[in-house]
């Protein structure tokens, strides 16, 4: 059994900042990463992920306390959406609007399929939204950011699927 070391909220914050600085330090010294604009948090996070994996194989686990994780993730993904501007869309021309239209149609299709399948499997239709555009278009980070809200407001304790109790056909 692994030994678990609890890392407090302040220490977790300091580790996160250190990971960012580590990524910046490495990116400045590795031309390949700078040339292809690999984000500093990704570089630092990958190094720390490798270190934590090695620690885990040696029987040591770290448990970070992240009291603001959910609210900060929601704020981040909200600001990403709010940063879109109509003037920038106009600069992209006709092709951008065609892409926007096609993407919007696919988002509707993703949600329709997700909600329909969730209903057929006797699941809360909101599970279909989580399996639809929230994660497919928004990404796993968006899904993680909204998971706590879905759990709190709608009682969705797990986002995993169970075998349906009735046949789909």
UniProtKB/TrEMBL annotation:
GO cellular component: membrane
Pfam entry (one): Glt_symporter
GO MF annotation list: glutamate:sodium symporter activity
Protein name: Sodium/glutamate symport protein
Gene Ontology terms: biological process: L-glutamate transmembrane transport
InterPro entries: GltS (IPR004445)
């Amino acid at each position: 059994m692994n030994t678990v070391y609890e890392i407090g909220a302040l220490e977790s914050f300091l580790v996160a900042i250190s990971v960012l600085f580590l990524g910046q330090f490495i990116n400045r010294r590795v031309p390949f990463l700078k040339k292809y604009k690999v984000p500093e948090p990704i570089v630092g996070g990958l190094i720390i992920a490798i270190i934590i994996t090695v620690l885990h194989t040696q029987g040591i686990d770290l448990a970070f306390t992240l009291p603001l994780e959910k609210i900060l993730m929601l704020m981040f993904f909200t600001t990403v959406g709010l940063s879109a501007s109509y003037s920038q869309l106009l600069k992209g021309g006709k092709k951008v609007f065609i892409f926007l239209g096609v993407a919007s149609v696919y988002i509707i299709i993703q949600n329709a399929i997700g909600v329909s399948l969730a209903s057929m499997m006797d699941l809360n239709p909101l599970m279909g939204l989580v399996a639809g555009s929230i994660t497919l278009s928004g990404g796993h980070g968006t899904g993680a950011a909204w998971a706590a809200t879905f759990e709190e407001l709608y009682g969705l304790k797990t986002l995993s699927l169970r075998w349906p109790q009735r046949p789909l056909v």
